[in-house]
Design goal:
The chain is mainly α. It has 2 domains: 1-111; 117-263. It contains 10 helices and 2 strands; from the N terminus they run H-H-H-H-H-H-H-E-E-H-H-H. It has a two-stranded antiparallel ribbon. Helix 1 runs antiparallel to helix 5 (95-111).
Length: 263
């Protein structure tokens, strides 16, 4: 796994940075104060810078690195422009993520050992969106302590979208278990469900369990907690979901790099 560690971190940080600003559409500026935007835009800029550092260490031999640098600089410019203004426009904030998505697509076409299909891109970006959403939900949950009378609907909408994406990933995983085949280290072709029972494939079952099943179960408890307006308890459960999602995603990406399995 550690042979792909830098690549995994690069793709994870850059994927987070490309998706996260788009989630600000879930929290309209009129309903939440500007500090929330400043914190999130600043955090995204730092995340992208870390991702570009790992990209330089592990992916700089591939083309398009300068497009990533341009994306990072544009993110800094947008963050600076809207840092103190009271007239934040999500359309402008969404421009750097578009460039980030294009950069990621170009990079992934070169680093994965398989030819990516359209469905592969969809599930990859669903994976990035799941990570971004669980962090967004956690930060938004904390913001209820800072802003009085913040509508509970904002956090509910975030959890609903999070649950939908987890459901889509679960459906894709079930489809893959039925129809995918894997060539193991000995050159033997195995069905994916058989592969899970091998020594090499065991950690993929861990990825599915922690990356999808546990967060779905947690979302049931989170939703019931939000129904009684207990945002602090819900945020505590989201913390657990963050750990589970990150743990699962680490193994998902390892198998994507090592065996070309896109789940």
């Amino acid at each position: 796994m550690f042979s792909f560690f830098d690549e995994i971190l690069a793709i994870t940080f850059l994927g987070f940075g490309a998706i996260y600003p788009l989630l600000l559409w879930l929290s309209p500026y009129k309903l939440i104060e500007g500090g929330f935007y400043r914190f999130n835009q600043g955090m995204v800029s730092i995340i992208i810078s870390i991702g570009m550092l790992f990209a330089y260490l592990s992916l700089s031999q591939y083309n398009n690195f300068y497009l990533g640098v341009f994306w990072f600089l544009l993110q800094l410019v947008i963050t600076a422009v809207f840092w103190k203004t009271k007239h934040i426009n999500n359309l402008y904030i969404s421009i750097p993520p578009i460039i980030g998505v294009v950069y990621l697509i170009l990079i992934m076409n070169q680093v994965f050992i398989i030819d990516l299909q359209f469905s592969d891109y969809i599930i990859i970006f669903i994976g990035h969106s799941i990570i971004a959403l669980v962090f967004f939900s956690m930060i938004l949950g904390h913001w209820y302590l800072n802003v009085i009378q913040l509508p509970i609907s904002l956090l509910k909408n975030s959890i609903i979208l999070f649950s939908v994406l987890l459901g889509l990933r679960l459906v894709w995983n079930l489809y893959a278990l039925i129809s995918f085949e894997v060539v193991d280290n000995y050159g033997i072709v195995l069905s994916l469900i058989t592969f899970l029972g091998t020594f090499e494939g065991f950690l993929l079952s861990v990825a599915i369990f922690f990356g999808v099943i546990i967060p779905i179960l947690l979302n049931v408890f989170i939703w019931n907690t939000l129904q009684i307006q207990s945002t602090q308890s819900a945020t505590g459960l989201i913390y657990v979901s963050v750990v589970a999602v990150l743990f699962g995603d680490l193994f998902y990406k390892y198998y994507a790099f090592r065996f070309g399995i896109i789940l």
